[in-house]
């Protein structure tokens, strides 16, 4: 029996418009012009005989007919994507693309990836790094690791501020929490030996303070978290990435406040030491993110179960090292 269906491309355009509630955003996602999107929607409406969108000046909204059509189209496209993934040559070859923050990738993830490859020799991990928000509707990645705050999480809202944007675009996502974002003040052991003694948090201000431009509140919030309230921070060096901050700290240029997860190996090797024993929780956590309908795909499940185990081991090791 011949199937009586509109064109797959028209349905794909409809799903993108309904998800974004914007012809402009859908056009950007699909890499076509807004006019092309409008023509596809108009043709689809003419073919099925009902209006699907109410057009406003800067936005659109679904009509009752469009709202009734959207869930089925979205579910069908998700299932089609899953089916294609099962036979896609790239997926069949076991290639998993993971997007991660640069310093997290270098200092935490990459040293552990050999273990994942040993456990799952048929899965090849392609690691891409960026500090930008991930857009699963545009970026060719399967998983992303970002740090930030998710509504409804148990991350304390009144902790050290973290205003990093984790995602862009539209679509249902799943977030698997890996570990809390704990800030620690670190420095080179030579700097600590040569500089004035630190008997309490206030003494940190006797040293140059190294800043990361993407976490501009880190020092002020860390000091507040350990009981030191300063209205104006000294003008000290600012760096664009944490790996630059860490390089400066290793050279002895000053004290840095960084996420503890980024300095586990530096502290274990003695290259860096805690300038103060306290850590301060930020208002965010590290999360593994993926598209909701791909959450249980075998490769993604293998990676998220492995990284959850590694995160738990990392937390246990940190707790043991901090114990008196």
From TrEMBL:
It comes from the Bacteria. GO terms for biological process: DNA-templated transcription. One of its GO terms (molecular function) is sequence-specific DNA binding. Residues 6-63 form the HTH lysR-type domain. CDD domains: PBP2_GcdR_TrpI_HvrB_AmpR_like. Keywords: DNA-binding, Transcription, Transcription regulation. InterPro entries: LysR-type_TF_proteobact-type (IPR058163), LysR_HTH_N (IPR000847), LysR_subst-bd (IPR005119), WH-like_DNA-bd_sf (IPR036388), WH_DNA-bd_sf (IPR036390). Pfam families: HTH_1 (PF00126), LysR_substrate (PF03466). Gene3D superfamilies: Periplasmic binding protein-like II, Winged helix-like DNA-binding domain superfamily/Winged helix DNA-binding domain. Signal peptide: none annotated. Belongs to the LysR transcriptional regulatory family. NCBIfam families: PRK11139.1 (NF008352). This is LysR family transcriptional regulator.
């Amino acid at each position: 029996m011949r199937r009586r269906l509109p064109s797959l491309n028209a349905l794909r355009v409809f799903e993108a418009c309904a998800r974004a509630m914007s012809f402009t955003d859908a056009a950007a996602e699909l890499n076509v012009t807004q006019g092309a999107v409008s023509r596809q929607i108009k043709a689809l409406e003419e073919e099925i005989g009902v209006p699907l969108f109410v057009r406003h000046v800067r936005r659109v909204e679904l009509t009752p007919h469009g709202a009734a059509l959207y869930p089925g189209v979205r579910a069908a496209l998700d299932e089609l994507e899953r089916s294609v993934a099962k036979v896609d040559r790239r997926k069949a070859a076991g290639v998993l693309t993971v997007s991660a923050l640069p310093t997290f990738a270098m200092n935490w993830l990459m040293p552990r990836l050999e273990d994942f490859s040993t456990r799952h020799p048929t899965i090849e991990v392609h690691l891409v790094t960026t500090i930008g928000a991930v857009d699963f509707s545009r970026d060719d990645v399967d998983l992303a690791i970002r740090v930030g705050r998710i509504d409804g999480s148990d991350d304390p809202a009144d902790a050290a501020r973290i205003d990093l944007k984790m995602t862009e675009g539209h679509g249902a996502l799943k977030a698997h929490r890996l570990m809390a974002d704990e800030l620690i003040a670190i420095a080179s052991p030579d700097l600590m030996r040569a500089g004035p003694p630190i008997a309490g948090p206030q003494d940190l201000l006797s040293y140059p303070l190294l800043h990361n431009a993407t976490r501009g509140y880190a020092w002020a919030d860390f000091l507040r978290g350990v009981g030191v309230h300063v209205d104006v921070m000294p003008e000290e060096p600012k760096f664009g990435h944490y790996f630059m901050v860490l390089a400066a700290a290793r050279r002895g240029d000053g004290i840095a406040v960084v996420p503890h997860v980024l300095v586990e190996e530096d502290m274990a090797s003695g290259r860096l030491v805690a300038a103060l024993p306290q850590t301060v929780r930020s208002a965010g956590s590290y999360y593994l993110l993926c598209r909701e309908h791909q959450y249980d795909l075998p490769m993604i499940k293998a990676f998220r179960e492995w990284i959850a185990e590694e995160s738990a081991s990392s937390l246990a090791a940190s707790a043991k090292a901090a114990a008196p």
